[in-house]
Structures are given as C-alpha cells and as structure tokens.
C-alpha cells in the first residue's frame, strides 16, 4: 500500500540476487536460441548444397565471382572501365539522321536526288 500513496517501496533483501539470476537465465536462453538457429541454418545449407550438387547449380556468390573475373579478364590491359552496350536511339544522333536522309532520298525522283546529294 505504500507504493500507491507514493511512499518508499519495500525492498526485498534478495531482490538483487533474484535480478541477477533472472538476467543470467535470459542470457542462457538467448545463447540456446542462437545455437538452435545456427544448427537449423547448417541443416538448411546442407540441403541446399545437396540440391545444388544434384542439379549442377552454383551458389550466388560463386556465380558473381565468375562473372567479375570474366569482366576483369576481358578488360585486362585496358586503363578504362568496360563500356556498356548503348541502346538503340541513344548516343550518336548524326548516324540516325543520315540513315533517315538516305531513306528519304531513295524515294525521291532522280533530279531531286541529285540536288540533295550536292
């Protein structure tokens, strides 16, 4: 009743000891949980590896490492980074304009073609 009226709490002489035991129990439960999780993950990885071996699949990290090695080998001796493919319609606009102009010239009558070619 002292707590409700704002008075001092009654102190349990073994409160510190009980709190320490509770903290230790929590730590132990957490360690057990982590160990269980590690065991389950190891079992899952074993199953994954069995499937990879069965179907000839590679791990994601191995695949990325091989791709990176291939890119580095292709660029060996080059001082610049590898160029990426430029999508059609991007880049040099002059080439597209010339090809359009050539296409239009094909459909014009002979005398007009001569005028534009000069």
Automatic annotation (TrEMBL):
GO terms for biological process: regulation of neurotransmitter secretion; synaptic vesicle exocytosis. The keyword Aminoacyl-tRNA synthetase does not apply. Keywords: Cell projection, Coiled coil, Cytoplasm, Exocytosis, Neurotransmitter transport, Nucleus, Synapse, Transport. Residues 13-70 have a biased composition (Basic and acidic residues). It comes from the Eukaryota. It is found in: Cytoplasm, Cytosol; Nucleus; Perikaryon; Presynapse. It holds the Pfam family Synaphin. Signal peptide: none annotated. One of its GO terms (cellular component) is perikaryon. Residues 1-97 are annotated as: Disordered. GO terms for molecular function: syntaxin binding. The keyword Transport applies. Binds to the SNARE core complex containing SNAP25, VAMP2 and STX1A. Belongs to the complexin/synaphin family. This is Complexin-2.
């Amino acid at each position: 009743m002292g707590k409700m009226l704002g008075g001092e709490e009654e102190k349990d002489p073994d409160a510190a000891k009980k709190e320490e035991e509770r903290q230790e129990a929590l730590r132990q439960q957490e360690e057990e949980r982590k160990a269980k999780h590690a065991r389950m993950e190891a079992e899952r990885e074993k199953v994954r590896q069995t499937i990879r071996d069965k179907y000839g699949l590679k791990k994601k990290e191995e695949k990325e490492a091989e791709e990176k090695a291939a890119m580095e080998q292709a660029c060996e001796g080059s001082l610049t980074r590898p160029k990426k493919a430029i999508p059609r319609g991007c880049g040099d606009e002059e080439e597209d304009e010339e090809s359009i102009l050539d296409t239009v010239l094909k459909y014009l009558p002979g005398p007009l073609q001569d005028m534009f070619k000069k």
